[in-house]
Amino acid sequence: MSAERWPENVGILAMEVYFPSTFVSQDRLERHDGVGQGKYTIGLGQKKMSFCDDQEDIYSFCLTVVKGLLEKNRIDPRDIGRLEVGTETIIDKSKSIKTVLMQLFEKSGNSNIEGIDTTNACYGGTAALFNALNWIESSAWDGRYAIVVMGDIAIYAEGNARCTGGAGAIAFLVGKDAPLVIDRGLRGTHMQHCYDFYKPNMVSEYPVVDGKLSIQCYFTALDKCYQLYKNSFRRQHKDLQCDPNMESFNYFIFHTPFCKIVQKSFGRLMLHDLFSLKDGELTEEQKSKYSSLLEYREMKLEDTLTDQKSSKEIEKCAVECSKELFKKMTKPSLLLAENTGNMYTPSLYSGLASILINIDEEELVKKRIVLFSYGSGLASTMFSLKVCPEEYLRPKLTRIIYQMQAVKSRLNERTEIEPEDFVKILKRREEIHHLPNYTPAATTDYLWPGTYYLTSVDKEFRRSYSRKPRIKLSESLEKSCEFL
Fold this sequence. Notes:
single chain, alpha/beta, 9-stranded mixed sheet, 16 strands, 36% helix, globular
């Protein structure tokens, strides 16, 4: 399809966020686990962690979030032409989650929906989004919407990594004339083979994690993607008076295995900007800005990650140099990550939801948000979106922002579970994982209205679900749906 025929302003039209109604407090988990006070809350930057009992699974998560997207935005199921799923929570080695979601379209008679599941650790949601965008900008597009759904249940075996779990799902409605427009042609991708985090044991939900290697891979991928993204931005914006840097953009969102790594990542971009400056180019203002990092300019960028003598000090200096910019450009994106933990594939996009919750609409209009997606193994991309570049899109932006405020309220409506019970629940999930002839033991009392839940697994491993009755939308929310 020629550029002249591309649909305009392709991106995210609507958004639905789901996380379980139960959580465990990270400070109480510290005490239960007998670790130093602040290890999870200060060291990792986490407050609360979402998790679910045995009556929820990845199928129920995705059913809940897609049904919510359809209902709250009054979308006719017949208007969906593609449905993409990104996840690393695998129930079946053959049958896709997408096929389970087709139950939601049976009544409408619409079975003409392309797309299946995409898997590579936390990157699957981004790959699913790109697939949807590519379809809309291709000769195969028939004018209908795409839905992208990403969801995961992130749990770990007992030990150091358990506190970095989380759970949730996010669904997007993707199409033209969107208020969140994905920048066309602005991407930087880095793919590499490594064993930093993987799930080779098919009878367990738990991953194998090399924590030190995983963090190094994450930062290496960030370096590569940022350089490639800036190169792409430079090619598109030939009128720039100087090379692009962090302050050429408005907000940065990162995949968030835990919040502290995001602050370190933001600092690393500042280090990258400094290393990009040629000798003799630094102004007095820049010398002041990068003062504590100047002594490291003679090093190679990759050595700042691996040099045992100086890597930690460089990281500390970069965080300190960038802390004011971080508060403005990235900290608002961490609301959900701090309070739900690592959702895996939806993690990056929980940052987008948080930006929409925390930043005033007037401040967001025509701003560019840069997103860094990372999935272990590894796959990574940096890309960007423009918020409401055209005035006629404002009502749609208003609607999304309004609906995201309900997500913020829901964070405060969850039920806190004692760490002792949290451990027992994860033990139960471990024991029943992939069992046939199983009926969940957990109550559905804690579930929110509109939540799908598992009712049984029969002897042939076939799973059945019910839905907790939905409360009618408020009059104001019903009105907000009219914008679509």
